[in-house]
Amino acid sequence: MVPGRRRAAFPQHTPAKRRTPRSRSPALPPNPLTKALSSMFSFLHPISFTLLHHVWTLNPLEDTAAVLAAASVMGLAWRSSWAWPVSLLATVLYGCVFLKARLYGDALRHVVYVVATLYGWWAWALEARRVRQAMKTTPVTGVGARVEQGLGANAPLVESGAEASYGEAGWMRLCAPARFSWRGAMPMALVALAVGLLWAWSLQNWTNDPNPWMDGSLSAAALLAQLWTARRYRASWILWAVIDCFDAGLFVLRGLYVTAALHLAYVAMAAYGWALWHEAPRDTAP
């Protein structure tokens, strides 16, 4: 030891005190309701995140097409012929959406829908004109006059020369639901079946579509529903509801979540449209 230098003092090491383990209460069995809710939220989390991400990034073309398509369905539920030009614009925009997403089969399918929409617009415009002319010339007598003019037995009559159409505002151009006829419905079903088979065969041989026959079946059913809507058959709403359920799942697999959500909303709109057409006076003309 060097003289004059003090020895450094080192702290003495004291052993750490051991903590006595606390007594734990026995684990409770998991609550079935809590377990089910946690499973549901864990399943919905990626879907909700994707939807929020889509709304945040905004796809204006798909969003505009979805809004126009929903508006056209509501217009058809209200039996207005103005719904057809809106549906035509929505169909064209959806064709562009599918082209952008490289879904060439769906894009080409919408070309057929454009033709069917033009036919529906023409048919409903003629019917609206016929109804307006009938309302101008129908005397206020009774149920017999209503039936003779091709109107429903409960259709409201207005005096001669009035500009109202079918008891509503004339600008809406309302049309009455038609009586379902197998003579008129079966040829449309055969045409839709032929188009669906040809479409499915084309997708299977010329494209890499993973579900060509499902796409072909949905295309045929949608074309048939479009033609039945053009003929104002009330059964078209039931067919649309079934198609929209399958289409929603198909669009989820293809990443078009807004369109899938729209098709789920279409199911509720189809039920609403069927209820409105069920209460509306039916056209007795064949």
Automatic annotation (TrEMBL):
UniProt KW keywords: Cell membrane, Membrane, Transmembrane, Transmembrane helix, Transport
Principal location class: membrane
Example of a GO cellular component annotation carried by this entry: plasma membrane
Membrane topology value: Multi-pass membrane protein
UniProt keyword Transmembrane helix, yes or no: yes
InterPro entries in UniProt: NMN_transpt_PnuC
Keyword Transferase in record: no
Subcellular location: Cell membrane
Spans traversing the lipid bilayer: 82-101, 107-126, 180-201, 213-230, 260-277
Pfam families for the chain: NMN_transporter
MF GO annotations: nicotinamide riboside transmembrane transporter activity
Residue segments, region Disordered: 1-29
Family stated for the protein in its record: Belongs to the nicotinamide ribonucleoside (NR) uptake permease (TC 4.B.1) family.
Function: Required for nicotinamide riboside transport across the inner membrane.
Record-given protein name: Nicotinamide riboside transporter PnuC
